[in-house]
Amino acid sequence: MLQSIPTIDICTLADDIKQDDILISRFAPYLDAHKNLFFPHRHSFYHLVLFTDGAGSHTIDFESFTVKPGQIYFMVPGQVHSWSFEGFTDGYIINFSGSFIQSFLLRSGYFDNFSFLSSSNPADEVIDIPAEHLPVIINLFESIIAEAESNEAMGSDMVKLLMLQIFIQLSRIQGKDENRGRQGYNHTLIRNFQKMIEQHYIDVKLPKDYAEMLYITPNHLNAVCKDVLGLPAGEVIRNRTLLEAKRLLTNPKLSISEIAFNLNFSDNSYFTKFFKKIEGITPEEFRKKTLNNKQ
């Protein structure tokens, strides 16, 4: 499938990464070294930033957030991201692969406990840290910076432990503790449905086909989606296709016909009708609006 925008890999960001699958830095020098990352791009890794100074905005999958001190945001691989800062901006940044933390855990699905690591919904990934919790989070980031610079024995394991402390603290702030991963059959079913959509949304369009893969009836799948997500199953599938269409439309080198083909629409007209019915504007209008906003 054609890529709409550049995909950034950890190894392209630094030539001297001391630990496999992870990059740790204070944010100001990272930003200074990577000025080219202001344009929209994807990551092939998990990405988290804690702001301690600065203002402006950052956008995740076309949803914009105001930058402010005490805010932390996460990105999962594949999401489209860009930022625009006003004045001096600082904080901490950690880029890491899924295998970096998972290699330390016996439970392969442990990330599902944390909405900011298991969701592709930007609203779950941006957290405003209350003032009373901020010193604890900052101290953990400082400890990670110190470990990354120390070259002490088992430093990689210590970084993983400190990162897990950050995840657990943030999950508690969100009010979604470790019990989130044990909220019952319906939530497990929805997570599996969403993972299947991520793998098959281009070729599998109908709820009945996903229901068959999940060994349940279409009515059951639809009822659970409405109960947990507040949306019918078909809308969940269509929203994922729409998101990818938006991502592809950010690349002016791709024609509307090419995007329609890559999303498995039978023709350009059908794709345009699909997009306008959900978004309210045509793909061409969305592209013009989005690209004008980036100038």
Automatic annotation (TrEMBL):
Keywords: DNA-binding, Transcription, Transcription regulation. It comes from the Bacteria. GO terms for molecular function: DNA-binding transcription factor activity; sequence-specific DNA binding. This is Helix-turn-helix domain-containing protein. The keyword Transmembrane does not apply. The lineage of its organism: Bacteria, Pseudomonadati, Bacteroidota, Sphingobacteriia, Sphingobacteriales. InterPro entries: AraC-bd, Homeodomain-like_sf, HTH-like, HTH_AraC, RmlC-like_jellyroll, Tscrpt_reg_AraC-type_HTH. The keyword Transcription regulation applies. Residues 191-289 form the HTH araC/xylS-type domain.
